[in-house]
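User: For my dataset I need records formatted as: sequence, then structure tokens, nothing else. Please produce one.
Assistant:
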Amino acid sequence: MKNFVREKLTQQKAVCGIWSIIPSPTLAEIVALSKIDFQIFDMEHGHYDFGTLENSIRTSEALGCSPFVRIGGLDANTTQKALDLGAHGIIYPQVHSHLDARMAVNYTKYPPLGQRGFNPFTRVQNYSLNQSQGAGKNSNDFSMTGIIIESKSAAKDLDSILDTDSLEIFYLGAYDMSVALGCPGDMKNPELIKFMESSIKKIVDKKKIAGVMAQSPEVVEQYIQLGAQFIVMGVDSFLIGKSLTAVQEQFKKLI
């Protein structure tokens, strides 16, 4: 089994995906059928239990869409379960320092890089059956480790955080950072734009993967030109609501 996103990023391709806060394997299937590159099942703001998470991961992966999981925080137990279920990557919020970043790697990687536990009887290991088909997932090179830079302390310590070995994806949490900067929700604030642009440059210069949310073609193009590769196009709840609103508005014009 391949990590579809890792493969594309290795080829220097940008990838696009969504945040998923609606805990539904059916919705995960619909999203994957759209041929989007990845979806991030959100256990911080979403309401996933492990049963729903397992079926969402299985469905997404089967259709060629990489399933990522945002853990609610730096939690070893939840991380272990998400990886055992077959997540292609873990995204951690609330990472405020290089010490937090090192902990994220510790939870997601097998020794000697970290302290992740190994159990050959889990889904990610094909339940110990068909070992040759699941061999790639036994490696530290399969799943990806990412963090969200979303606080002033993380921004201040970014240079040290970027030096963390085996930490690959650095997603810039613009909404949380806008609150930290005193401009909640103002995506055009000069201070926020400065943070985004300077951070992307630092990440790219360190040959790491910069992640951002970009909800319009113009913003996508802007960030890709800056070097961002991990592009989130929105949140499932908003995208569904936006689409239905557009349908309803079109209907009103006809009656």
